[in-house]
Structures are given as structure tokens and as C-alpha cells.
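Re: that chain you flagged

S.,

Sorry for the slow reply, it's been a week of failed gels. I finally had a moment to sit down with the sequence you sent. For the record, here it is as I used it:
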Amino acid sequence: MGSITLVIPAYNAAETLSDTIRSVFNQSYSDWELIIVDDGSTDETLNLAKKLTGNDERVRVLHQENRGSAGAYNSGVAAAQTEWICICS
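Prediction finished late last night. Pasting the C-alpha cells below so you have them in one place:
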């Protein structure tokens, strides 16, 4: 578990998700956990999130029925295991 949680809510974000994930992985600070919440996407968002994050223990990919951005934020925050949370959108 890291010292900060980064939450990425994603709905049909296949075109931009790789840039966002790459940005997190390229940070010089590495004591984080990343939670990607696929909010019922109908494109390849979920598969792409799993593929791009591999087996990194700092990453969790959640999937839920579409609940809108607030629902995705709330799911990510509820799953966080740190005191500090950052929403990446």
C-alpha cells in the first residue's frame, strides 16, 4: 500500500487511458496506489486498463455498472487504502 491513492474514473476512455496511466507510472514519486474504475464502458477501456498495468501490486482495476462520474469517484475513494486521495480526470 502506498502513501497516496490515485483514482482514475474511466468511461469509454480507451483513447486516452494509456497516456493517463503512463503519466502515473512516469512520476519520480513511486509510493502510491492506483485505482482505475471502469464505469461500465462499452469500448476496450477495461481490457486496456488491465493490459497496461500488468501485475503491478500498486494497481487495482475495478469494474462497475455505469453510475456516472460521481459514482466512479465514490467507488475509487471507497476502495482507497490511504489517507490521501487524488482524483485524476
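What I noticed first: The CA atoms of residues 55 and 61 lie 11 Å apart.

Talk soon,
D.
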